[in-house]
Amino acid sequence: MSLAPDFGITGYTDRWTARPGERVALHLSADAACRADVRLHRFRRLEPRDGALELVADPVALPPFAVDVAPQTIALGSRFEAALPAGTLPAGGFTLAMLVRPTALDPRGNGLCALDCGAARLALSLAADGRLVLALGAGAETPLRLVLSHALPVGHWSRLALAVDPAGGVALATLAGRRTHAAALETAAPSFAAAGRLTLAADGGADGLPTFNGRIEAPMLLVGAGDPAAAFARLDAFAASGEAGPGAIAAWDFARHIDTARAADVAGGHDGRLVNLPMRAVKGVRWSGREQSWVHAPRDYAAVHFHQDDLADAGWPAAGHLALPDDLESGLYLIEVAGPAGRDTLPVFVEAKRRGERAALAFLAPTFTYLAYANDRCLLHGANPEVLAGRLLALTAGDVALAAHPEYGLSLYDTHADGSGVAYASRRRPCLTLRHTQRAWQGALGSGLWNFSADLLILTWLDREGLACEIVSDDTIDAEGAAALAPYRCVLTGSHPEYHTAASLDAVDGFLDGGGRLIYLGGNGFYWRVAVHAGHPETIELRRAEDGNRSWASEPGEYYHAFDGAYGGLWRRNGRPPQATVGVGYTGQGFLRCHPYRVAAAAADPRAAFLFGGAPPAADTPLGDFGLSGGGAAGIEIDRADGALGTPEHALTLASAGAMDDSYLLANEEVLVNRPTVVGRLSPLLRADLVFFETAAGGAVLSTGSVAWAGSLGDPRPDNDVARLTRNAVDRFLDPAPFVPPQD
Amino acid sequence: MAAMADDLSGLDPATRALAEGFLADPLGEHSPNLQRLLYTLRSAPAEGKHVLVEEVPGRRWRLARLGGRGRPVVLLDERFDDLAAAERRVFLLRLAARGAAGEGAA
Predict the structure, then answer these.
(1) What local confidence, expressed as pLDDT, does residue A206 receive?
(2) pLDDT (tens digit per residue) in A61-94
(3) Domain extent at residue A284
(4) Are residues A380 and A256 in the same domain?
(5) DSSP string, A265-300
(6) Which of A241, A279, A576, A706 has its CA 20 to 30 A from that of A165?
(7) How many CB atoms lie within 10 A of CB B47?
């Protein structure tokens, strides 16, 4: 069985985590309209066969279920929209004014704004060279066009005023620095008195241009079509005060409700909405560096950054809803949608109907990390991962489909078309990296499994061991806190639980404070801080602030989340290093091959005897000298113990892998002055530590500090020391007898 | 290997020695000088860069070139059933392109 998607049918679900009895919406598109069968399979394991890993899954008996799947499109790019009731725009004339800072131009041009009121339409766009293009028309008539002789400067703020005079026509003026430019379309303007819509950052047309790349601030509609200098003065006053002043028809203050998709009209009450979540909490014209947070100085952050490749919601209609049986066991399920056009296979984590009823062991599915990496395109057009991979990049069917579908959007690792970092990631779109068949260059030589698919190796091991285990996801602990983990005695992490919100990290800490036992089966965990949007809970925000391994960097002054106002970036730079939770924290990475640990003297400590069946190996014995990920249990992204960063004093480092090859590089946050000893064996900090410690609440933590641990765990060889040690840990961690930290 | 040796005939002796080292073990641990050459070759911009596309996972790969941002992958008519063979082929293609561009040794 492979259930391999070929993406002739492609889809997404409304959720990645569900409970028995719930319905999962299937948002689907097909290359050609067809009827497709929907089947549900329970993931069991991956088995090596003929050089590849073959899926073993159990079909779930469901009533026959078929859906009609039609080709769908996606309107990529973010924009602002506000409805204008009839009579909003005065018959005597009006002016649209705003502050604009383009950041990139598409070769096709970009829409900037449009007024559509009844049959009347006024649109402004940017040509490929940045020149403004004005179009004015009514109904079916060919619009009049005016191409200005000058361009809006990319990377600089301009004031812009568009005055509509029913008698005199349309006058456009811009002011960039001290340079004013003006042009006019001298014709009788149609009436804009009918009900309509103002669109910003797009041209609002059905077959329009790419949307705008750049920032817009203080858009306002003013009564009268007068002197542009007066409009510019009004703009400046509005940007400074947030007050529209007299004679304003509408004035949208983007400094308000920054944690929402709402744009408040402080003059006329015609609130707008931001479609596809353009970036907020970005610097506006007034930012001086005096304040770094929009919470402290909202007027400094009164701009919105639009991108032509923003995507918060693909908006595909649900082709059907899959009803999960009420008695479905917790586990990972694969929703297969297959028809003449092709197949997609959508994973869904099903949690327990009543948590803890069937198992005291839980797997914490790192859904925030899956979302952060969703549609990672770095290998297609971004940074240069081949030098990190140390080998040719091998693309999967999913990668090839992603390249062919830019409209599926970007990941938190990518940059936008204008070079700015992608700070928001939504799951209401096809996320092609979340497939059981996905492999990646980060997965090292061998299986190439990475992130979600590497976690399948942990589930594989659980299945092989016959260990009863339920699923809880990041989404759940973010929403419900430690209570969602409390029914379990022992929780296993994924191979790479990198991204956490404050609430999800609090939940893990709270679980441990309550005596829980945690086995951290990964590396580079609990690293980045993210936030969930209150109005768009399917979307997370990341600021790549200050430090850390970053595929892009947040701009100065933009280190605070829009979604919750918190300081973003590394949890370490938020005062919560991973070592304080799990005893180890990120120290470096290499993506070609992995290495064994070497058993340390501390393994002989009687406190750790249970991990080795009472017979600890001699110091320096290799541990995990094999594996499906890079050929060793230690590698890819690795963590070390460090007392200065919070590793408990009584923690035992049972084994370490310090002999990493020279493709491994020390983490940026460890480097103050760069030096040539940041690679491989030259850096004493560059090691994976296997750490165990007891907690004061009677619980315990075992941390592997390595993404590749899962690759050895999932290896079916009979004499698997990694699997044996992990099983010993699980058995003891499920035993209610309390752990006691050493007393001295 | 005879055909590959022919492909190296235009190289200066130092680069040729490095290339022979790579061709002998493309996925092995490389000398610092060979690693420098590989960093140079692998640092080309994404657009037009050679990559592999899996045809049969773990068993067969097809040569391809990246189209760049927003553009599809371009599949080429060359297939490999061994990753080391693919590494050798692309290494030689890149060396040849580098020679044509008149670049010196790393």
Answers:
(1) 65
(2) 999 999 999 999 999 999 999 999 999 999 999 9
(3) 79-306
(4) no
(5) ETTT---EEEET--EEEE--TT--SS---TTT-GGG
(6) A241
(7) 13
| Residues A329, A284 share a domain | no
Backbone angles phi and psi of A398, in degrees to 5: -65, -40
Residue A370 pLDDT greater than 50, yes or no: yes
ipTM of model: 0.94
Q: Please indicate, yes or no, whether residues A142 and A275 belong to a single structural domain of this protein.
A: yes
DSSP per position, A529-590:
EEEE-SS-TTEEEE---SSSS-SS-PPTT--B-TTT--B-EESGGGT--HHHHHSEEEEEEE
Dihedral pair phi/psi, residue A617, rounded to 5°: -65, 160
Contact (Cβ atoms closer than 8 angstroms) between residue A453 and residue A334: no
Q: Taking the CA of residue A369 as centre, how many other CA atoms within 13 Å lie in the half-sphere pointing to its CB? A: 26
Q: Tell whether A394 lies on the interface with B, counting CB pairs under 8 A.
A: yes
Query: Residue A311: is its pLDDT beyond 50?
Result: yes
- What is the predicted pLDDT for the residue at A493? 98
CB contact under 8 A, A395 and B56: no
Q: Are residues A336 and A435 in the same domain?
A: no
Residue A622 burial by Cβ neighbours in a 10 Å radius (0-12, 13-18, 19+)? middle
Whether A55 and A120 map to the same domain: the answer is no
pLDDT band at B105 (very low <50, low <70, confident <90, very high): very low
CA-nearest of A662, A667, A642 to A653 is A642
Q: Count CB-CB contacts under 10 A for residue A346.
A: 25
How far does the CA of residue B2 sit from the closest CA of chain A (Å)? 23
Tell me which residue of A666, A619, A611 sits closest to A638, measured CA to CA: A666
A2 domain-assigned: no
Q: Whole-angstrom Cα distance, residue A391 to residue A172?
A: 54
pTM over 0.95: yes
Considering just the CA atoms, what is the radius of gyration of chain B in Å?
A: 14
Nearest CB to B52 within list A50, A394, A404: A394
Over residues A206-211, mean pLDDT: 83
* Number of compact structural domains in chain A: 3
With a cut of 90, say whether residue A140 has pLDDT above it: no
To the nearest whole Å, the CA of A411 is away from the closest chain B CA by 13
CB of B90 within 8 Å of a chain A CB? The answer is yes
Kindly report each contact of residues A258-264 with a partner whose C-beta sits within 8 Å and lies 24 or more positions away, as own/partner.
A258/A294, A258/A298, A258/A301, A258/A562, A258/A565, A259/A533, A259/A534, A259/A562, A259/A563, A259/A564, A259/A565, A260/A534, A260/A535, A261/A533, A261/A535, A261/A536, A263/A80, A263/A82, A263/A304
- Residue A635 CA, distance from chain mean position: 24
Q: A95-134 pLDDT, tens per residue?
A: 999 999 999 999 999 999 999 999 999 999 999 999 999 9
Shared-domain flag, residues A589 and A717: yes
For A394, the closest chain B residue by CA position comes to B52
Pick from B38, B56, B70: CB nearest A406 = B70
Residues A566 and A655 in one domain: yes
Predicted confidence band at A178 (pLDDT cuts at 50, 70, 90)? Answer: confident
Is the separation of the CB atoms in B33 and B18 below 8 Å? yes
From the list B39, B59, B86, the residue facing A52 with the nearest CB is: B59
| C-alpha closest to that of A729 among A701, A709, A706, A705 | A701
Q: Is A207 exposed, middle or buried (0-12, 13-18, 19+ CB in 10 A)?
A: exposed
Q: Look up the CATH number of the domain holding residue A63.
A: 2.60.40.1930
**Same-domain pairing of A87 and A64:** no
